[in-house]
Amino acid sequence: MERSRQDGFTVWDLVICLAVAAMLATWFAIIRQRTRVHVSRPYCASNLRQVGLALRMWANDHGERFPWQTPIAENGTKELADLPNASVHFAVVSNELVNPKILTCPQDVNRIRTNVWNASLNLSLSYFVGLNAGETKTAAILAGDRNVSTNSATMVGLLTVQDLNQLQVTPGLHRTYVNVGLADGSVAQLKPADLRKTAAAEMKGLRNQPVRLVIP
């Protein structure tokens, strides 16, 4: 009685298995990236709400002024407002913010979260500071994702924008949009066109003063 012949595992079987495994790995990587972006959105919105609340609490104890409107002699950062360092403005409200971890976006792979308030904090920041914002200037941009620029590159330092057509969102943190918190406590996810509209409303309320952001 003859036994039925069974072919073994061939090279073509191996090639097919490897190809399927590669396709699945690519698919899972894409899904993971999309999930990561999606999950980071509420985190950023929550972070910016906490930042806005902390700054308003601080302002309540300092004559309704934010740190960059308050002299150093009164524990503010007014004399430092034009320097390319956003961390100084967050550091003075450390009692209200409690932990600097909320100043780092989970999607910002170029920033490392820290729980220490120190001189290197600027390297952990994911959010810029809007220097035009104030308790009486509620339409002004208070803080937001650092991927805003006037060109295709991510910028660092003081960004002054008079021509809003130059204001744009750079790729990186959240693809084609930016999370922005206003001085009135609201937070929104804005496409470049919406960011320019928001900045235009700020400029209108400030009699056409330029938008001023300190980007970490």
What would your notes on this structure say?
With 216 residues, the protein is an alpha+beta fold. The protein has one domain (11-215). The chain is 34% helix and 15% strand. It has four helices and eight strands, in the order αααβββββββαβ. The protein has helices at residues 11-60, 87-91, 94-97, 192-205; strands at 127-130, 141-145, 148-149, 157-161, 168-169, 178-182, 187-190, 211-215. The strands form two sheets. Strands 4-8-1-2-6-7 form a six-stranded antiparallel β-sheet, sandwiched between helices. Strands 3-5 form a two-stranded antiparallel ribbon. Strand 6 (178-182) and strand 7 form a beta hairpin. The longest helix is centred in the N-terminal third of the chain and has 50 residues, at 11-60. It is elongated and about 80 Å long. Mean pLDDT is 85; it is low at 1-5 and 28-39.
Task: Describe the structure concisely for a colleague.
With about 220 residues, this protein is of the alpha+beta class. It has one domain (about 10-215).
Low-pLDDT stretches: 1-5, 28-39
Number of continuous helical runs: 4
How far apart the termini lie comes to 81 Å
Largest pleated sheet: 6 strands, antiparallel
Number of strands: 8
Overall tally of structural domains: 1
Q: Percent of residues in beta strands?
A: 5-15%
Question: Which descriptors would you attach to this protein?
Answer:
two-stranded antiparallel ribbon, 216 residues, alpha+beta, single chain, disordered N terminus, 4 helices
